[in-house]
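Reply to dn_fold:

You asked what the input looked like. This is it:
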Amino acid sequence: MNNENKKHKFHVNGMHCASCVLLTESELKELPNISHVKSSLKNNSVEIEGDFGEKTEGEIMEELTRLLKPHGYTLSLEKQKRDKKLSDFRIAVPIALLFIALFIILQKVGLVNLVNASKVTYGTAFVIGIIASLSTCMAVVGGLLLSMSATFAREGDKVKPQILFHGGRLISFFVLGGVIGALGSVFTLSTGATFGLGLFIGIVMFIMGINLLDIFDSTKKAQISMPKFISKRAFALSKLNHTLTPLLVGIATFFLPCGFTQSMQIYTLSTGSFWNGGLTMLAFALGTLPVLALVSFSSFSIKNNKNSGIFFKTAGIIVILFAILNIINSLVVIGLIKPFLNF
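and this is what came back:
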């Protein structure tokens, strides 16, 4: 019997960022009859090449959708008009404003100190970690974790791999964050360079916030991401069944394409200190821990929840406001404006 590979192209519904590209490609490549996969964020599509026998395109689409649906993606032959759910803003805006008001009140009475004019504190990093763990940008880490968990669950080992994964993740974020901070000590940042770095971080966060709103497609292409060849290695690790695999996968998550992680990595460079850089990244990783722990032992996914649109829009507004504060603080550093709200 002669095998014949054919190319097929499908539209992907639910794709938001570079993480989605990596996750869809990784999952589809697991099918033995597929020889090539290429996802595109620009067109929200996936091209595959493989041998599907006498199956129609509709049957192939349904088969691939069953594989991707647990991650929040569905395939279609025609591009579907996306519901931007603008009505969600009626709930999201008041919640976000209430959060910011509470934040400002706590800031003013001195109970918390999340943001100031010169640096991102550990509290800020922890809060950003919480938001990141519930965002679509962290879907790739959740997908990686679920993939690894499934591999070990087949052997009846469910707890030890999770401990090694999360332990490896926390340790790597502290050590590698510290290394980045130490590298920053080699360079003495001028006032102009500090302003430029702060402005860049603010812009990166602003773009991530806009993408969380899920109403503009053009900004998705502007989000920074880790080179794909590095991220692919992490997914390859998750398919191995070796005692140290969970530990290595946890370490590898430091290099995955999450914009929140990368914005924090950029910031740690400006700390110029191993301890400050390490503790900042550790605080961020601790913020992501509760949700990732839920992912470890369940199929929890806020992305597939009926109220996910409200959450993402609320988180997007909060991230945008954090970004604006960061940009304002950058302007304070170079003396263009006076300190804003005494942060």
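The beta strands are 6-13, 34-40, 45-50, 74-76.
Hope that clears it up.
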